[in-house]
């Protein structure tokens, strides 16, 4: 969408706060289209196809990966953005980039790496996504990282600890001053939630670890299930469950658009900076749908994420991260040569925290199967 077609409080390409390394504006694209394209061309983006959400990559070909998750987030966010005349290119760029910093093995991997880094500066996946686009991608001759706009980087950094916020200057200030990001950033964040709650229900059903009967104990799910059964008598199996999920996404997105539009109308912001200075977010659900999302999330936590089968995978995944981290820290020569050099540099300048950051970057960048292969290769090396 061109700037002239956008709402006054949307992020406008011509009014971007710019890039860390100044560049001429693109000829045929907006600034945010350029950001999106850089994300799509990045190595970290391609790796998302072999990184998992809940199930480990080799468990089946049909489960969500971080790549398909990111695409689903982008689809949902774009729908809402277009309906609200927000910047669709920007929400797409943020959605596609938001998980670039994720470790192998989903949240389990992140927790394990955070544990390894506890005394060494910590590990936050959100911050890591920013590190990837600011520093770690090596694709351009003129600068490190992808050199994205402020607005895309603002959207990627959904949350971060106070300690890290202080180190991030302007980008981190909102976490210290309790201000908001622009509406596109708020939207990508909520679209992420809608996407994972619903696709995890789908993957959970597909895996057989949760059932329709269990899900029907959630009033929000039961309501959609009853509607589908009444509208399509006799429909069963995957067509039934997927129609229910489709409908859940539809009603959540509709509520989000209507409530957010009302919030915006009431606040009457005249610019993206007016949005940033508000006390709370404007992209929001109505109270019953906040509750629906909460119960869905809680159901998944109790019945899927902590299911004994998932826990077993989680434990193995965490063990792999710990073994890799310890092996690399014990002997930098277990790392590829360029990383080993960087780890030695880090050790020299900042001590073990400096070396550990290089190791964490390397481990976080791994795909599930590369992490497993590397663990095997290291075990052979030791023998
Ligand atoms: Mg996500």
List the secondary-structure elements in sequence, H or E.
HHHHHHHHHHHHHHHHHHH
Helices and strands: which structural class?
Answer: mainly alpha
The description of the largest β-sheet is:
none
Q: Got a strand count?
A: 0
Shape: globular
> If helices are DSSP runs of H or I spanning 4 or more residues, what is the number of helices?
19
Amino- and carboxy-terminal Cα gap: 59 Å
Low-confidence stretches: none
Radius of gyration: 22 Å
What is the mean predicted local confidence, pLDDT? 94
Looking at CATH, the homologous superfamily is: Hypothetical protein af1432
Provide structural commentary.
With 383 residues, the chain is an all-alpha fold. The chain has one domain (18-309): Hypothetical protein af1432 (Orthogonal Bundle). 64% of the residues lie in helices and 0% in strands. It contains 19 helices and no strands. It has helices at residues 31-40, 43-47, 66-83, 88-97, 106-116, 125-136, 150-156, 162-167, 173-177, 183-207, 212-215, 219-231, 237-267, 272-276, 287-305, 308-330, 337-350, 352-365, 368-382. α16 (308-330) crosses α18 (352-365) and α17 (337-350) runs antiparallel to α18. The chain is globular. The mean pLDDT is 94. The protein binds magnesium ion. Residues 69, 98-99, 192 line the site of magnesium ion.
Short structural description:
The chain is an all-alpha fold and 383 residues long.
Question: What secondary-structure arrangement, pairings included, does this model have?
Answer:
Layout: H1 31-40, H2 43-47, H3 66-83, H4 88-97, H5 106-116, H6 125-136, H7 150-156, H8 162-167, H9 173-177, H10 183-207, H11 212-215, H12 219-231, H13 237-267, H14 272-276, H15 287-305, H16 308-330, H17 337-350, H18 352-365, H19 368-382
Helix pairs in contact: 1-4, 3-4, 3-10, 3-13, 4-7, 4-10, 5-16, 7-10, 10-13, 10-15, 12-13, 16-18, 16-19, 17-18
The structure holds magnesium ion (MG).
